[in-house]
């Protein structure tokens, strides 16, 4: 399982330079098969996922690459977060493993 830290601090894998984002805000975990787990790290402004009934705050959620997420006040997607660390996301049910982009 590959893990990626998300936050404002430069020590994170994904850096979001936004005052609403905590220094160590959340973690994105590749659990395999095109499923990604987004886990809040006790952030001040929360971690959110867009569902059928709108934005919902989450402590931990399993998502696919197309999921829209909000880190603090910063809207993004699982795909965008993965691409920021040089990972090409896979779609659910794919036999392929998550692949690293050769350009990074």
Task: Walk me through what this model shows.
The structure is a single chain. The chain is mainly beta and 104 residues long. Helix content is 7%, strand content 45%. It is built from 1 helix and 11 strands. The protein has one helix at 78-84, and strands at residues 2-7, 14-15, 26-32, 35-40, 47-51, 54-58, 60-63, 68-71, 74-77, 87-88, 99-100. The protein has a 5-stranded mixed beta sheet with strand order 2-1-3-4-7. A 4-stranded antiparallel beta sheet has the order 6-5-8-9. It has a two-stranded antiparallel ribbon with strand order 10-11. It is globular and about 35 Å long. Mean pLDDT is 90; it is low at 97-104.
What is the residue-averaged pLDDT? 90
Which range best describes the helical content: under 10%, 10-25%, 25-40%, 40-55%, 55-70% or over 70%?
Answer: under 10%
Overall, the morphology is: globular
Rg? 13 Å
Structural class by SSE content:
mainly beta
